[in-house]
Description:
Blueprint lengths: L2 E10 L8 H15 L2 E6 L3 E9 H12 L4 E11 L11 E3 L6 H7 L12 H14 L3
Parallel strand pairs: 2-5
Antiparallel strand pairs: 1-3, 1-4, 2-3
Helix pairs in contact: 3-4
The structure holds flavin-adenine dinucleotide.
The site of flavin-adenine dinucleotide (FAD) has 20 residues, from helix 1, strand 3 and helix 2.
Organism: Marinomonas balearica
GO molecular function, one term: blue light photoreceptor activity
Protein name: FAD-dependent sensor of blue light
Amino acid sequence: MYLTRLIYASTISNDISPSAVADILDSANKHNKLNDVTGVLFFDDKYFLQCLEGSRYQTNETYSRLLLDSRHSDLVLLEFKDISVRSFPDWTMGFIPESVLSKSIYLKFSPQKSFDPYNLSSESAYKMLLELKEVLPE
Ligand code: FAD
């Protein structure tokens, strides 16, 4: 079974408060641990940008559940590709809060200053998440 990386963008639903993100992370960590899925979730109060790594079957299956989750909408798949190595092997689902994303980091990867994951190429989205992981405080 191939190792795969999936990256998507979505928008938090209107009736969900940003504090619901803690519940989402609990659920993600519980399921991902069982399924050998790792990755990272970035949230900026409006948009989610998430990277999932795992077997081709498990990343697909997880994304299918995500598509049904009413806590977010407008899911757009940015990348789904076979990979040889995980980038987030220690995180069942690492969380990167908005405070970690400075305008200068975002501008490096995007055509404009305000964060909009739908306007990121798959490569920029992936590289930005990698860079955010590096600057995340311990
Ligand atoms: P249950 O937990 O039994 O829930 C049943 C249904 O209700 C599901 O459709 C669920 O999506 C929905 N639901 C659950 N709680 C709420 C709530 N408080 N408000 C509204 N609807 C709710 N899951 C993973 O396994 N891995 C991940 O990495 C992951 N990342 C996520 C990232 C985001 C941005 C979001 C919004 C969700 C994420 N989830 C993740 C959760 C995922 O969407 C499913 O809710 C979860 O996997 C549980 O699925 P389940 O079939 O066991 O449903």
